[in-house]
Amino acid sequence: MPVWLRDYSWRQTPSVVYVTVPGQDGRRLLGRPDIFCAEQYLKVNAPPFLFEAFLWAPIDEARSAARLEDGSVFFTLQKKEAAPWDSFLAEKVGKEEMQRIREDAVLRAHEKAKEEMDAKAIRKREHSKCALEATLKLEEAERKRVEDLKEEERKKATEEIEKWKEQNEKQRKLQERDPVDLIRKKQEDYEIRSGSGRAAQTASGTRGAGSSGNMFSEKLKEESVPGPRRAGSIQLKFTPRVFPTALRESRVQEEEEWLQKQAEARRVISTDLAELGDLSEEEKNPDWLKDKGNKMFATGNFLAAVGAYNLAIRINSKIPALYLNRAACHLRLKNLHKAIEDSSKALDLLTPPVPDNANARAKAHVRRGTAFCELELYAEGLQDYVAALRIEPTNKSISEDAEKIRRIIQETG
């Protein structure tokens, strides 16, 4: 049960109210307490301490602030109307009016959080659009560069082919001429280049002519051969197997059954997420969302934690821990009926009762019993605490709380 903080101090100016909430009996508020500030409602939740105030007049929550210093909470509240207050707390506020103010404050906080999430989603889509445009520009530039390289290589290849055709055409024309004249002309050109005269040719006789003819045919043959092709590399890519084991060592039938089950599960999840918008792969994983909600709960951001659990439940509604954790958030936010519903749903899923889920069932009974007690339904709350004790009979905390509830029932008759 929470320990209510009744001591506080306040002072005001025509437009600002300053409030100080110290710890109980000089004890400091440790950790990071949950501080909630609405138009006519203040709350400080630092287990086991709880402070709650319904204000005399509305304040501007957007310009108001709170800070934690030396174990105490200091509020700076900006008035909506610059006028002195007769009192800090509102007078003659009944339970129904208190509940209405709480629900209105939580509803407005939910709407504000939803607006922030929508704005964040819009910014994310804009960033994705900008990133996509930049990627398209880079791909277009790379494609143009590759096309230019291809065009350059094509031109080089065309020039080489044209040169090779010209050489073949020259050789063909030379072969069409008289072979004797061709040999004589080549021999004369050779003698001029080598520095020998006509006398050397006469002394050599027919043998020299035949030798020069062989040299010319070898040179002609060498000129007719095109140059070597340019070196290059070819990349081959193979479609990888889904399973890394070799085919001879794998169990093909079991692998195909597993792949079919995975495809069916992805199909079901994609069908359920069709209306959820553009989500990342992480945001489609209920376990990742549960861990994210747990981190937000640990930091005191209960509204955001509820949002993470809600999305995880929409993806997979058969995980008891999601309902159990969301029930804890609703308890912190005073959404008591929703806490009862989530705890009951978790108990329905935690079947059959086995030792592995005993701790979760005990938590579900305790959280539902706590919600009943907050609604002053102490008999129903005691039933849940007794059920939790049957599961964990050695838990002293549950036993002490159950005894307190019995005393409250006896005192109220």
UniProtKB/TrEMBL annotation:
Gene, per the UniProt record: DYX1C1
PROSITE patterns: CS, TPR
Short name of one Pfam family: CS
Residue span, CS domain: 3-89
Renumbered residue ranges of the record's region Disordered: 165-231
Basic and acidic residues bias: start-end ranges: 165-192
Keyword Transport: no
Compositionally biased tracts (Low complexity): 197-206
Cellular compartment(s): Cell projection, Neuron projection; Dynein axonemal particle; Nucleus
SUPFAM superfamilies on file: HSP20-like chaperones (SSF49764), TPR-like (SSF48452)
Sequence ranges of the TPR repeats: 362-395
Key words, A-Z: Cell projection, Cytoplasm, Neurogenesis, Nucleus, Repeat, TPR repeat
Protein name: Dynein axonemal assembly factor 4
